[in-house]
């Protein structure tokens, strides 16, 4: 049945494509919804998936149509999800880089964070040299793992390891109530 529809679509039969869309509309919608978890986004994505299916039909080689369109739908939904996450991260960075005052409910968190930074700064001199630099860079100067790795000319994994070991050292040598 699908192969006949596909051949008709390839030869320019728009009605055959409408029949195909109707047949697989729910499958595609539920597939993209499973990734995106938002009805409006899933509806938009499903329409985009059908456009991709239509334009990709010449490459379809009768390898299981439902599997083929499901793979297109999943890949498209994952692409959308990645873009959404990237957009949220960009917005968060923009917010952090602007001089806006923080929302009222985060003022308390900001004060606590500043106090912890002050305590860490005060106790930093007690730390071994190899931990001091990453702790200061990450917790006080608020640099990313990537920035620290580039400054120290090491891999990001090395920074992660140093911070992990520094935290272990702090847990062992500093009382928990010093920082809570």
Helix content: over 70%
State mean pLDDT (0 to 100 scale). 83
N/C terminus separation: 67 Å
Rg of Cα set = 27 Å
Number of helices: 8
Strand-residue fraction?
A: under 5%
Query: Sheet bearing the most strands, described?
Result: none
* Category from helices, strands and their pairing: mainly alpha
Explain what you see.
With 180 residues, the protein is mainly α. It has 2 domains: 2-94, Rna Polymerase Sigma Factor, Chain: A, CATH 1.10.1740.10; 102-178, Arc Repressor Mutant, subunit A, CATH 1.10.10. Helices cover 78% and strands 0% of the residues. The chain is built from 8 helices and no strands. It has helices at residues 2-10, 14-36, 39-56, 65-97, 104-123, 129-140, 145-152, 156-173. The radius of gyration is 27 Å and the shape is elongated. The model has no long low-confidence stretch (mean pLDDT 83). Belongs to the sigma-70 factor family. ECF subfamily. Keywords: Sigma factor, Transcription, Transcription regulation.
């Amino acid at each position: 049945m699908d192969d006949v529809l596909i051949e008709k679509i390839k030869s320019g039969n728009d009605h055959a494509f409408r029949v195909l869309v109707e047949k697989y509309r729910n499958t595609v919608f539920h597939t993209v919804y499973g990734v995106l978890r938002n009805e409006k986004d899933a509806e938009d994505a499903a329409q985009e998936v059908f456009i991709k299916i239509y334009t990709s039909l010449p490459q379809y080689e009768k390898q299981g149509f439902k599997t083929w369109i499901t793979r297109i739908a999943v890949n498209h939904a994952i692409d959308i999800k990645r873009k959404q996450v990237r957009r949220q991260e960009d917005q968060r960075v923009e917010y952090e880089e602007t001089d806006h005052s923080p929302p009222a409910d985060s003022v308390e968190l900001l004060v606590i964070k500043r106090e912890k930074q002050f305590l860490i700064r005060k106790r930093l001199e007690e730390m071994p040299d190899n931990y001091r630099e990453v702790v200061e860079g990450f917790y006080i100067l608020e640099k990313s793992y990537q920035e620290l790795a580039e400054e120290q000319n090491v891999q990001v994994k090395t920074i992660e390891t140093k911070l992990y070991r520094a935290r272990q050292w702090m847990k062992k040598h500093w009382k928990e109530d010093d920082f809570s």
